[in-house]
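FAQ: What does the model actually see?

It sees only this:
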Amino acid sequence: MAKLETIWRQKTDDQHRKALKKRLTKKSAQVLFNSLKSAANEKDIENAWRKVFTEYYVENYDEGFEITSPENVDGFISARSGALIFALRLLLEFKQGTDLTRVNDRARITCQCIHYMHAFKEKGYELPTVIVGADENQAFVLLAGNFYKYLERDYEWGIAPSSAYKRDLKLMRNLQDDANLAVYPFQFVGGNVNERYNSLLDLFDSIDSIVQADGKETYKVAVSPATIVGMFDEFNHIAFREPDKIQPVKAVNMFMQMLTGKNSNDYYFLPRNRNLYHLPGDEKAKVYGVRLEAYLNHYDRNFTPKEVDQLTAIADRLIEANERRFKGDFWTPTIWAQRADELLKEVIADDYKDDSLVWDCAAGVRNLTREFNYDELFISTYHEDEVYLGEGYNPEAKAAFQYDFLNDDVLLNPKDKPDPHDWKMPESLFNALIDAGKTNKRVVFYTNPPYGTATNVKADGTSKKGIAKSKVNELMVKQGISKASQQLYCQFFTRIVKLVDDFELKNVYIGFFTKPRFFAGGDYFEKFNQFFFSRFKFVKGNLLNAGEFSDTANTWPITFAVYQLGTGCTDQPTNQFTIEQSDYSNGKAKVDVVGTHTMQKVYNNDALSTWAREPLKQGCFVKMVKGTYPQLSSALNESRGKKPRGRLHQGSLGYMVSNSNNIGEGTTNSGVWLVSGSAYKGNGFNVMPENFDRACVNFTARRAIAPTWYNEQDNYHAPDTSNPKYQEFVNDALVFTLFENASYQAAYRDEDWSNTNVPGKWANQWFWLPIGLVKEHVENDSNLNPIYDDLRGDQDRFIAKQIAHRSFSNEAQAVLDAAEKVWLETLPNRAMLFDDYPKYYLEAWDAGWFQIKQINHLYPAASYDQFRECFEKLKQKSGQLVYDLGMLNK
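And it is asked to produce this:
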């Protein structure tokens, strides 16, 4: 049925498009574009646009329109006297040199049109129903009724409309804040002629659609579940060209973004193709753009911040109308709320809901509890609007109230403040907690707390600084738990511990959805874990993909875990979780257990990252003078314009960026990488002869493991150096570090850099072949004279000397042999690149593997595929040894 409707819609749309093309031919469009391109002044632009509007509405339309210029407007199209059609009254304003993608320029034109409309009103003329603003490149369409409200206000009426944007600054400020100006200009530059022609057709189609829907009426959006659900149903019906390809979450997000315009950088109609709507990640959805714009234009979309919050909350209900009811989006998906209830029953008792005080302290619109019935339920949420939006769910709750769990009542305790009226929490909850402390009644804190981190830096370089500031945060800092105090869910745990102490609760369980990173240990969580796990023990939990939730990546895990208050609890070194995923098929949703995963807490003293740096603490190293060595963002790119953080020691072999200590960070090219100079990023260490082996072990362990969504937060333990396999791994790691993609070692011949006694010569200590072998292959080839000249008087590099004195496994030796073949096959081709690619420094006899790969990109070596196969075998072996040596838990 849906496919038939799609076919019907497409056929209807094609027929409509043909009719448009008859009224506005491609030849006429080309005349317009040529005229706009050659326009010498604003009058030329006005004439070009008036000509095409006259052709479309006056000459090729049967409804009796005429174009005039009352009050000296650039154009006013309306029905002739006696005509039966009155819906279209089109006010035209044309400019030169504006940029209509900017709100200011759209406001400038609209300000002038509002002054014209005020003059119309004063003289008894009928007001326009549609406004069109255009320049030589773009045009936009507005529903005039959205701006009638300004005519009743006190502005600088009486001034010339053409200068209103300069003199009526109050109106200009108001317009720039008006959401109804958040329209998407049609573009007539760039692209090919067909794209520009279709954009022009879309412009006139948009105007026609407004007229057909009676462009006089404007409706204020009433923010309530009933009205928004109705609007969304209408939106869903008209929006999509391929509705079966649009997931419900995508439809809801598009609807909310169009309605609120909160993220116009990611959500917008393509300027030259209104039938494509841009989404985050440069994704495009096929839509009926003209219909959507006409639909949206009839609503006044100026929302208060409170109304925006309400709209966002209502989005949850929209998604629940279909299969995403089971997968959810903005809060806890229902299927995972059901699974959480099962885990609570497994840990506590089947009837825990009948004889426990249950408090959902970050309830939102009650996604966790609304499918169930509780004997003594309390519901609180940070946003007051959510209390009302959740009405109808859990009517049995003893109280549903607005409450800031991390700030309200935090500094109070019932001994000093025994009067419940001194507390913000409801008297019923206060008394229930007092009673539970006296009777040992079970109390269950059950919620999905926010996951925000104050220090979390997002992809666009911004951070969430400030979100962690709370009274609980201050308490944690005083208790010496300052690092984890930046995590909001750690603050929720800490507040519960305080409630346990304040109300002398003895029978307490916590059921929380959180990130599981604190189960991997690390310096960040060490003190928090000592604090929390001395009071509560982990009983049972699962790992689910974060992609099960809305607006989250699918590369990391979330856990729902149950904790029990106890005595004599300790921070357990390992915790086991089930790996679970949702399955939606045949109209039913279920959760499948697909495996188990054990997380090991690794703290600083035992961490691989600490172990790799340890020898550096024992030595006394002299730092090189800044500016005498390269600060690199990759092998051949120097970082400029920012203060680099890496510092190089004299005698250093290079710098290894080694951010954090977990799998997820290690497998990104920004988290772990190696250069033979210094690195702009910092977050790493110098590779010296003293820590060379450990650096290679660190690099290989971090880069050889394939991340999965459930293991990406696992931390690395220092290796078991007593294991018989350890030395073989060290030598394998040397070879792995030489040739892995994030190993950016290179030689440089730059006048500003030197780590030798030759000015401008930066030796690559990671070059693995002996100098004698290089000399043998270049001394008789005149084309390679620059390389021969460069090696005169030089000596073997550090790595070549190391290789000469070590024995290697079959896998590592195969990589070395294959790499040498690639080097030999690319060597003759260097001469062709000396002049064209000077920044590759290919005249350097010790040019590193990264530089050799640049030659191979242009002139592929026959042995390169063999090298890749050998390296992949070494990588697989190295990954297994990481587990065998205890660096990761199996």
